[in-house]
Amino acid sequence: MSKSPEGGQKVLSALCLILAGIFAAWGLSNEFRAGWLQYSDVTFHLSLLNQMAEVHATGGSILDFWYDASPFGYPVFRVYQYFPHIVIFYTSLVSGFSLGLSEALALWTIVLSALLPSSLFLTARLFGFSRSAAVAAGIGAVLLAEAEGYGFGLENYTWGTRGLVTQLWALVAVGPASGYLWRTIRTGHGWGWAACAATFAIGCHLVAGYILAVVLLMASISGVGAARLVFTQRLIRGCASAFGLLVLTAHQWLPILEDRALIHRSLFEPEWKFAGRGVDWTLSQLLEGNLFDNGRLPIVTSLVAVGFAFAFFGRSAPWGGRAATISLLLWISLLCGYEAWGWLFEGTPLLGTMHMHRFVVGVQLWGLLLAGYGAERVLSLSQYPPVRVLLSAALLAAPVFGQLALFERTDERVKLISKQFEADKDVQSLLGALTTRRPGWVYAGSARTWAKQLTVGGYVEVYHPLVAQGVPTMGMLFHSMAKSGDALFAFDPNQESHYQLFGVHTVVAPSDWSPPSFLTEEARFGRLSLLRYERGSLAHCRPLSFRGPESAALYRGSDLRESYVTCAEQDRVSVDEWKSQRVVVRAQLVEERLVVLGLSYHPGWRAQIEERALEVREVAPGFLGIELPAGTHELLLEYRPGQTRSYLLILSCVIVLGSLLSGRLLRRAKQPGRQGSRP
Amino acid sequence: MDGIVRFMREGLAILLAVALLGLTWYTELRSVARDSDVLTPSEALSLVSAATKDASLIAPTQSALQGLLKSDPSDARTLFGLGWVAQLAGNEREALEWYGRAASEIGELQKFIHYNRSFVSSAHNEALNPIEELEAALRIDPRFALAEQRLRMLREAPRE
Question: Do residues A137 and A123 lie in contact, with contact meaning Cβ atoms separated by under 8 Å?
């Protein structure tokens, strides 16, 4: 251990960060216990991982595959961040799946929460803050609590809340990435690290992409920290960085652009997700302290205010202080969303489907740096270590108590639900009965029917464990990526025509529900009844002239038998095989027909009969259709991913590694006497 | 001068620390007090109802009901609430015991309702029949001596 004061400070800083990391990891440690039974978007992530494992086992591409655990399927990774899933999947794979997918996911959530303090520390240091301010910012990262969630607050990552798996990954990387990028513009050095951190952050969550775009803009235009550079120099560096990032992240945004006509914004999503929170909400939440200290004394909020004042007006503030203040102001205004920025956002590519409520991350990132600086200023009131310790304890007390209460609450919930799930023989038997994939969707109730009646422990809907285990279940739209998804809410379990249109084969209903005559009871598990629609399958046939409604919502409340003419009685269409990337349909048609599948349309589907390729077409609203000639056919449908993404990803890796290595080699060449160097 | 400034800064630091710790302590105490506020049985039942949607409420509801039971061990609503909350917590055997106690307390009340009604003059309600009331009380508790005695008396009394 070093005896110099600086050495001692380094050790103390490391100790504080480690303790903060352990605190967060301990708080989230009960994530292991819940396993497959989740009550948030973690259900969706588990089902994605489950399908990755299936695709990997059959030799398919885990970078681009057809996901169909929730209606009506979509190649999710084309439009969704996928780095976290790849790492989680390989963690489980490397362990020979002895560490299950759900455990690997929980493990990474815990590890990343433990890394948050160090990430914020590094960010603050890159922005020129002192070690003590950086440590305070790091500690603050695990003590935030925001109202309505979706930011840094650990509550977002605890069981049964929001399940923001990928965002946590991005949060760990986005701060350092911002720091490296700003440094690159300031100094012209560190391209390799900036590229590495930024590519990873954006690969983990698109919100990081928006934050980094704003960082590039601010660093280039404002000149904070790089005042000696002329504007054009900064602009050139900024443009070069932006171009580099566009190339490095092309594997992610190119498929999104390709799919832009298919990407859907559900009618049932709340408006604030896409439109932002609005000016009133943002300002009132900020002033009431709910963006940093929801439900407790506004300590962090006060530190942000102190840090802001000192950084903005103080002459001894680090350059990063000024960068953080202007960035904080900008992100507060961005969180206001369309109300403040509609004139700019309207028509901007990719912003239409961006979840703007996540911009709270930007506010909190810069707020945390300022809170760290504020804490440093407050602690500098005293020069005596015991008083500083007392003051630190006073600053930490309320946030720590708040987090402890959160951990206790979550622990109670997880313990209870695990116990209830183990004791719930009805649901266990149901899961056992549905392990084999059926030739159509399983309808387990939605928010509009009986989902709230069929629960584990009174609130976890049965469709959660079904989806998590990869059973193609109609229950909830976790991410309404395809236009067809909204049809879920139009499905009426009493209308036979709906079963045909949406490809529903199985129904899980409360045992006291009086099923319509066309359903037969297959089994009864206590309060649950498993029913089968004998004539139901994923595929059905329609006349060639069939046109569905433009919007899935139009299905609602109508018996479609009258509106949409079905085929002749002699026509027979059945599904012989439905695997995640492949469907085999057997059709016996008296004349040319349109075979419509209860799957979302995507041009990645390939159809063939008797070795002959057929065109796949979109049947409104967003279903998959194939025109088949008369006769008996075996129609083979396969989802075939493009190779572009793989090549672009390899290119990104090569560029990142190349820039890291070349930077190292260049530094060595410049300093021949030096044995080693730091990034 | 420097000494005074330093002294004032240290004083301010200590004052700030004490004030923050005090405020935190006060806030914590207030939230504990809020959690342990005495509820009425009806409020406790509303809490159980809320716990069906949010399992994190089960434990606090259970302790609130236990508190109520101490002040009134025979309150049927409290006993019913304890059964319900035990059921939500997955302890079905315990729930049955609580429901049994609640039913027995309700029965106790009901048999006295019938017994007392047998004294009410039929002038207020023509349908009121003292013998039927007493028989109903005895169906609830066949060993209800008071009802048995009065029933015998009414049956043996000469009709007017």
Answer: yes
Contact B17 A393 (CB under 8 A): yes
Residues in contact with A33: Cβ distance below 8 Å, sequence separation at least 6, in sequence order? A414, A415, A418
Residue owning tokens 């901007």: A348
Fill in the DSSP letter of residue A660: H
Q: Do A378 and B88 touch (CB under 8 A)?
A: no
* Nearest chain A Cα distance for residue B11, angstroms: 9
For the stretch A107-126, pLDDT in tens is 999 999 999 999 999 999 99
Task: Report yes or no: B50 at the A interface, CB cutoff 8 Å.
Answer: no
Q: Is A660 on the interface with B (CB under 8 A)?
A: no
**B35 contact A CB<8A:** no
Give residue B142's pLDDT band: very low, low, confident or very high (50, 70, 90). confident
Count residue pairs from A and B with Cβ separation < 8 A. 79
User: Among A368, A395, A402, A393, which residue's Cα sits nearest to residue A294?
Assistant: A402
Please say if the pLDDT value at position A267 is more than 80: no
Token pair of B129 as six digits: 């029949």
A427 interface with B at CB cutoff 8 Å: no
What would the DSSP string read from start to end of chain B? -HHHHHHHHHHHHHHHHHHHHHHHHHHHHHHHHHHT----HHHHHHHHHHHTT-GGGHHHHHHHHHHHHHH-TT-HHHHHHHHHHHHHTT-HHHHHHHHHHHHHHHHHHHHHHHHHHTTS-TTS-TT--HHHHHHHHHHH-TT-HHHHHHHHHHHHSPP-
Q: Give the number of other CB atoms < 10 A from CB of residue A165.
A: 27
What CA–CA distance (Å, rounded) separates A180 from A186?
A: 10
**What pLDDT was estimated at residue A107?**
95
pTM: 0.83
Residue A373's pLDDT is what?
97
Alpha-carbon gap, residue A516 to A513, rounded angstroms: 9
Which run of H or E residues covers position A187?
helix A165-187
Tokens of B128: 């009121």
pLDDT value at A214 more than 90: yes
| ipTM given for this complex | 0.78
Q: Among A377-381, A582-586, B95-99, where is mean pLDDT lowest?
A: B95-99
CB atoms within 10 A of CB A668: 13
Q: How far is A381 from chain B (nearest CA, A)?
A: 5
Name the residue in chain A with its Cα closest to that of B32.
A405
DSSP type of residue A162:
-
B56 inside 8 A of chain A by CB: yes
Q: Per DSSP, what are the bridge partners of residue A595? A: A541, A626
Q: Does B52 touch chain A (CB under 8 A)?
A: yes
pLDDT, chain A, mean: 89
- Note the pLDDT tens digit of each residue in B124-136: 667 788 898 899 9
Q: Which residues 6+ apart lie within 8 Å of A527 measured at CB? A: A426, A454, A510, A511
Can you spell out the DSSP letters for A44-97? HHHHHHHHHHHHHHTT--SSS--B-SSTT-B-GGGTS--HHHHHHHHHHHHTTT
Closest C-alpha to A649, from A181, A260, A82 = A82
Q: How far, in Å, are A564, A606, A635, B59 from residue A592 at the CA level? A: 17, 19, 14, 63
Nearest CA in chain B to A378: B13
Chain centroid to Cα A463, Å, comes to 20
The listed range with the strongest mean pLDDT (A155-164, A266-275, A670-679) is A155-164
Select from A502, A531, A503 the least CA-distant residue to A518: A531
Given a contact cutoff of 8 angstroms between Cβ atoms, the answer to whether A256 and A79 are in contact is yes
Give CA–CA dist A491/A445, Å, rounded. 9
pLDDT single digits (tens) A226-253: 777 788 888 999 999 999 999 999 999 9
Structure tokens at A244: 């580099």
> Is the Cβ–Cβ distance between A626 and A614 less than 8 Å?
yes
